[in-house]
Write a structure and sequence with these properties.
single chain, about 400 residues, binds flavin mononucleotide, two-stranded antiparallel ribbon, TIM Barrel, alpha/beta
Amino acid sequence: MSGFGLERQRQIFLDGLCGRKPAIPIQPAALEEGARRVMTPEGFAYVAGGAGAEVTLRAKRAAFERWAIVPRVLRDVAARDATVELFGRRLPAPLVLAPVGVLEMAHPEADLAVARAAARVGVPLIFSSQASHPMEACAAAMGDGPRWFQLYWNAVDAVMESFVRRAVACGCDAIVLTVDTTLIGWRPRDLDLAYLPFLHGKGIANYVSDPIFRASLADPGDAVERFAATFPRPSLSWADLPRLRALTKLPLLLKGILHPDDARRALDAGVDGLVVSNHGGRQGRRDRGARRAARGGRGGGGAGARPRAARLRCADGRRCVQGARPGRCRGVHRSALRVRPGPGRRGGGGGGDRGSLGRLRSHPGARGLPHGARDRPGDADAGGLNPSGAARERYGWRRIGGVRLSPSI
Ligand SMILES: Cc1cc2nc3c(=O)[nH]c(=O)nc-3n(C[C@H](O)[C@H](O)[C@H](O)COP(=O)(O)O)c2cc1C
């Protein structure tokens, strides 16, 4: 990828000599505005919105704006090598494309277009569970290009297992289990428009193409209702992890880790990597920023850091949230707080300087963990989107939500 940016820049300016300007705006704000103009209000709200009053969303952007690099000069940058080795594969840059669901709301080619673009530059694409095209079609569009699979753990284990098997068959290099979306965030923009794409049959291509999911349908038109009844899975817990770990020898990452204790627990459970993420501010209303969470060391507040609250002390010596100066204590003490040095201090690093991918360990290969979790037949009804019978009746669920399975899927 060395020289890719330079090449693109040169092309744009040369086109300019012939009176051609880029069809797609380069300035981020103009790009966003252009997207808003061509997308439906519902599609734009879904992509651009965050949880609650979008405090986390804004804080995230502000954190990136504060981030600064002090360049060193006169170092001969004619040939640059940004390559990294990750899970046994040499990548052109320390960059992985995050899983983004329901891309059909942005463009009809959706994941297929992203897959082709990613393969062209050799950057891994993480296929979303909520993709608009089945993972097999995305894989076919990528040739040998690297790809990973992001998993939402369905309330029916057999569907989750089928997704993992398909991801392995698709040549995915890793499985990324998203752990911050066992409930869907409270997203006012979507709520104001009373619109959730999945209920309109969007972003469920991996389900309607799945043999196990399809076999569970009495009628193909029940797909949306069935999906809504089994997604997400609020009961997911650490006790479920061994079941997934035992399913595949592929590297396993957890996406959505922010707390150092969770990071340690994940690594202890045999997870190979962490994606330090707050889901772009779409899940929690006041989540700690991913960059801050990932940063180790003093003041970082992330894995390995002592939180500020732990350093402040009241006059009586108790650790305090406000403390330190006379009259500031409002009685909120952290006497029980213990944050031990985490992976960041032990040398692994919180990953803040390595992008969103936090601490990554090399894949140790087969683990041979036993099937730890039991079957849970009752889980099929545990999904957070599951409408009550009355609601189904009232809104004619099948009529508005039912999606016909096309024979081509
Ligand atoms: C429209 C949209 C759809 C997304 N879909 C998914 C998804 O299907 N699975 C997932 O794990 N994350 C999904 N994400 C979250 C992104 O993968 C990513 O975490 C986020 O955009 C960047 O925030 P972070 O730096 O906190 O990770 C989605 C984000 C957006 C904006």
